[in-house]
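Supplementary Methods S3. Complex input for the zinc ion-bound model.
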Amino acid sequence: MLKISLEKTSFVETKADLGIVFVVDKNLKHPWVMPAVLKEFGYEGEGIFFDQQHKILYVGIKSLNPEMPFDPEMLAEAGTQAIRYIKKMPFATAKIGIYGDKKMMESLFLGMLLGTYVFEQYKSKKSPPSSETLKEIFVANECFDGADCTLSPEDFDGAFNKALILAESMVLARDAINTPPEDATPLFMADLAQKIAKENQLKCFIGDEAFLKQEKMGAFLAVNRASAHPPRLIHLTYQPKKSRARIVLVGKGLTYDSGGLSLKPADYMVTMKADKSGGCAVLAIINALAKMEIQAEIHAIVGATENMIGGNAYKPDDVLFAREGKTIEVRNTDAEGRLVLVDCLSYAQDLKPDYLIDIATLTGACVVALGEYTSGIMGHNEALKTRFEDLALTSGELVAKLPFNRHLNKLIESKIADVSNVASSRYGGALTAGIFLGEFIRPEYKDKWLHIDIAGPAYVEKDWGIHTAGASGAGVRACVAFAQDVAKRG
Ligand code: BES
Ligand code: ZN
Ligand code: ZN
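Predicted complex, serialized as structure tokens:
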């Protein structure tokens, strides 16, 4: 990762190969800005401009929120853009100034750290190693707008360490999600979990097929049946000395979703290696929270399997026996995530959670509803949904609450089993999937449960914000922010 360090010097005094100036709302009235050059080249503060003569990179930022000089996420995005631009040039060091408070700087650091992200394990030709390109960013201790806003070394360390842990954890999730399905199998997920456990002294339990049978996880097992790769239930535990609450996270870990016998059309199958994004997110989240030594007990549970076809595949018309004791009529084998999740959620409830959150690339309908960049928040507890929404938004992730209603409940009724795995209407698919999960949540946990559908932002095939094309690490920042709040307030 890129090194970032705080200097005692002003921007002009700080020595570096180049300077980065973030121009907020086209405000070019600042001593660091060279107005003559900008005039000559017609740069008015929008987009990126590199002044070769003075070695200054200008990056324009538009403020979104009139209440705030500018949004932390806009600053993060500008940081990412700046690093991507500089990476292509032969400069080893760059300097920046201070923009806003500790939270703003944390955001900027995260954007900069993620600006170096590439996934090129499978490329024969790799980009130049960091020893040949940008190595270090110096933070001059001077505020951009001239106000008195220096950063104390403690605040710098706090902001930088949090950004570094988040960036490393998001990279961990991204790398795993981007890994092709023939390599990233359920066993790969289990190995990754074991590595995370070892590094952070977490308890690690890996359940194999025999364990799933013993636990009567008939829904999870059915999804796995036609796969050449055995399934795994992964359970990591972080247990601090002092804990305010127990948070249990459950992630959908479909290492490939072909749709099963209800086969996906060719174009829809591509990117389905990313159907393990929820599982990878929960591993990344527990990694981050353990490193932050958070005062809350965290459990990360992943249901890892493929959804494939074959003579022994589970079929539409089958009836499955889920761990919670309910029967499920299969009407579409492509609605497999909810089958794996209900058995994992059943296991999770035995842990007596104070908060139970599942994260999944569950429905295309959620992407239709909210677009590619926003996750859907569902559940039966309105206050909890709002709390999660607020914290997720301040973390920089885009989320929106989706409301269940009693009319939708009827759509998953089955004539021959307790519940059907798909709704009888094609409308409201994100919600009916959420309501299906809710059928397997015990009354005492209804108020403690949230379902986060990350189908949109988990994997986008173009660069956006602080993300490169491919896996984003969606869910990591939101859940880390939520857990931190729980550790503070219970
Ligand atoms: N993994 C998919 C959902 C998905 C779609 C994730 C697009 C990311 C991008 C899920 O297993 C699925 O196929 N869901 C079906 C449900 C349907 C059969 C009721 C869907 O969304 O079409
Ligand atoms: Zn599916
Ligand atoms: Zn799926």
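The pocket of BES (ligand 1) is lined by residues 257, 275, 332, 334-337, 361-365, 367, 422, 429, 455 (CB under 6 Å). The chain is about 35% helix and 20% strand.
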